[in-house]
Design brief:
With 271 residues, the chain is mostly beta strands. The chain is built from 2 helices and 15 strands. The strands form 2 sheets. It has a 9-stranded mixed sheet, with no helix packed on it. It is extended. The relative contact order is 0.12.
Length: 271
């Protein structure tokens, strides 16, 4: 990076954020927009990175970024709704005099915990090495550790997924056209993703069923209206009996229901 050897440095920072719904945002600490690598980096001089700590070992690289909520593309409503949770992040430096010819990536990963206040927000970077913090072997469990339809479960979600339209909303929950009280329990512990309406692109878990009404986990960023559409994914209670009777998938059951517990040697014999 010979451009850093100049007597007068023209270096500035830039960020690229990719949301899980495919939205790509480029920002720069410079006072005007910069275009390079085919991306428009909007001027965001209020964005401030902390020191970037790059570890040569297996420890995860760390960096925090803070900024004022002044840019239209990063709003408080979107942060609170979780639209930026887990977004991919690339951070680097470039020469603002010639950004297309000189740039260097300092860190990449995804956004971790996001904290926000009335005046701005602060987010942490989780590098790719964060996956090394995961357990080497899964812990035993009497219930299934897999999520319905994942690589361990192997159940095809095609049969258990459909798109539906909101028919009514009340205190009991949200009712969808075609989801009757008889089949609504199949969606307990499942999830949905909104494909239209003010919440489009957001996903929620389904934590309770009341008749035909589905109650979602967490708070909605915007009110749901009749006519909004969502993709509904059925759920699983992770019990062996359900895996056998409903999904016929015991071959891939990821639990140990008959494994003795840690208190085996301290149990008293029954009378």
């Amino acid at each position: 990076m010979r451009w850093l050897d100049k007597p007068l440095s023209t270096v500035t920072t830039f960020w690229r954020l990719m949301r899980r719904d495919g939205v790509l945002l480029g920002l720069t600490g410079h006072d005007r927009d910069l275009v390079f690598d085919g991306i428009v980096h909007r001027a965001a001089p209020g964005m401030l990175p902390s020191a970037v700590e790059m570890e040569g070992g297996l420890e995860s690289d760390t960096m925090d970024v803070s900024g004022a909520l002044t840019h239209d593309t990063i709003s408080r409503a979107d942060l609170m709704a979780g639209r930026w949770d887990g977004a991919g992040l690339v951070f680097g430096i470039t020469d603002w005099m010639d950004p297309g010819a000189a740039s260097h990536i300092l860190a990449r990963g995804e956004l971790g915990a996001i904290e926000y206040s009335e005046n701005g927000f602060q987010a942490e970077l989780k590098s790719g090495k964060a996956v090394l913090d995961a357990p080497v072997a899964p812990q035993t469990s009497p219930t299934c550790r897999a999520a319905l339809g994942d690589a361990h479960c192997k159940v095809s979600l095609h049969r258990y997924t459909h798109e539906a339209q909101v028919s009514s909303v009340d205190e009991a929950g949200i009712e969808f056209a075609g989801v009757t009280a008889a089949i609504a329990p199949d969606y307990l512990y499942g999830r949905l993703r909104w494909v239209s309406g003010a919440n489009a692109g957001l996903g929620h878990g389904i934590e309770h069923v009341d008749g035909a009404a589905l109650r979602l986990a967490g708070e909605l960023s915007s009110a749901v209206q009749p006519g909004d559409r969502a993709t509904l994914y059925q759920g699983c209670d992770k019990y062996m009996a359900t895996c056998r009777a409903r999904f016929d998938n015991m071959l891939n059951y990821q639990g140990e229901p008959y494994l003795p517990g840690n208190d085996l040697l301290t149990r008293y014999p029954g009378g």
